[in-house]
Amino acid sequence: MSGATAVRPTSVRWSAFSAGPVMRHWRSFVAIGVIAAFMIAWLGRDFLTEFGPSAVRPARALLPVGAPGSPLGTDGLGRDLLSRLLAGVPFSLLFGAVPAAAGMAIGAAIGLIAGFAGGKIDRAIVGVMDVLLTFPFILLAILVSAVLGASLQNAMIAVTLSILPKNARLIRSQTLSLKHREFITASQLAGAGPVAIILKHLLPNVLPTALIVASTDVGLMITLTAGLSFIGLGVQPPDVDWGVLVAEGARYITSAPNLAFIPSIVIAIVSIAFVALADNERRRRRSRH
Amino acid sequence: MGRYIASRTGSSLLVLLGASIILFCTIRFVPGDPITTVLGSAGIANPDLVARAITAYGLDKPLPVQYVAWLSHVAQGDFGFSLVSGERVTDIVARRVGPSLLLGLAASVLGLGIGLIWGIAAGYLSGAARAVLRAAPMFVLVVPSFSVGLALIFAFAVSLRLLPASGLSSPLEGDHQSLASLLTHLILPALALCLVPASLVARLTYATIDEVEQEEFIRTARALGVPAARIAVQHSLPNVMLPIITTGGLLVSALITNAVLIETVFSWPGVGTMMVTAVQQRDYTVVQAGILVVAVAYVLSSLAVDGLYLVVDPRVRNPPNT
Fold first, then answer.
1. Using a CB-CB distance cutoff of 8 angstroms, which residues of chain A are in contact with residue B282?
2. How far is CA B218 from CA B116, B125, B160, in A?
3. Interhelix angle for A203-230 vs B128-142, to 10°?
4. Do A159 and A226 touch, CB atoms closer than 8 A?
5. Can you tell me the ipTM of this complex?
6. Nearest-CA distance from B213 to chain A in Å?
7. Could you tell me the pLDDT band of residue B177, with boundaries at 50, 70 and 90?
8. A117: Cβ–Cβ under 8 A, 6 or more apart, which residues?
């Protein structure tokens, strides 16, 4: 291939290696980069920070941003903010990701069954989901925390229940539109049972939508669950997530606003990374059809 | 029309029934035995006393009977006594409902107003302003509302010293609020709380404008030479009301969830802070009453929003005979 033709991305093979996809999907690349950077920083936290997340040093209390050894400053007990932010990475990410994944898995199962079964089962499930759809989830979180005690696990259960109805409805409507397509009818005539049809034919077809919606949910859930930690219903001390850091920083809002604002900005950046990833993928699928 | 009202009211009652049953049942998972609490560790050793207490409190009756007895007390506003202060729970809740309603209403009005203006601007402006206004709602949804509250406190209370950050006293302390003090305390929390509903309304508004602009009646009006502003106000915007009403339940729900966070940020003496404190103190009776009151508020306001359907949509008011 001569130099003159190589410039033009004429063949499919060549365009796959050119800068084209990167340019077209720069949003996804930036989003994945941001999320990966936080994970890598967490893995390398011992190299990046001088002090542990719980190391109390009164002599180093309330250092400003840019202080030697504590680039993001320290809190009222002299604990390093960067170190605490990195310690919060797994909690904040899992607190967003686990409910989003569980809510989609259970919601998809309910939606597939309702959509495929139809009739009375469908009407009953839709009735219950419609009632639960907009119920304020924070009441559930408060109730569960009051009765079973505030814990990360209980908060995750409450949040999962809150996004379940929305997902079940979405997957049900997708199932309904697929149900009467030829390939489903054909496999029914070939003697496939309902379980086989749901698992082999319906599930693979709703999966892309499910993954995209779940990715958006991870982003929104990171913000939402940070709120639960903020009011003390989520991650419990000595563990920290970014919502706990904002709550701790709120006490020093007059003297050291960086303590509340830096974790807030981190929550927003990571949430938007997940949302942008889903958004880009959704746009790509739409343009392809 | 009658059918629509009946089905909406029916499902609202079902939500409340479900919520009350769940509340009644979960309180049984609370650690500790009520009889031990009433009799004390000395009394529990006397089997005769235990048997009498169980009969007196109706704990020997079947669960549904106990539920009905509990519900009839709750319906009369009797939630029992706070486990921490010993005060009547009804009195505690009554003090907190006013400030919460005030904050909720202020944020709803602000949110609807800002959201509509925002959405209309995003719908009709062009160029960079359009792109920014259309991207902004997503940003508002991922920036935590409590962080927005803290940012407002930092800007207006700490830096500019214009408005108070907190300290709205409850009538508990005996002093009455002057209207001016109430309003200055209300501005920041209402502003922080209105952003989430505002961005949801803005998204609905510009999406509806996009859709309606494709319709034939708009094209006809344009072809007839009706001015653009008049097309927008008379033909386009009335269509925005329907999707906003349809998602009314979601808006109310988002408002309630964020209100609990915002009340905490601004130490607002409302139902939200009451519930958060009660959870920390394990004051089960107060938590129970708070949840039930908010659930009732949620159901009633969703119902009211649904009622607007009747006003706005003639198709619901006079359904075609089929």
1. 146
2. 20, 17, 48
3. 70
4. no
5. 0.84
6. 21
7. low
8. A194
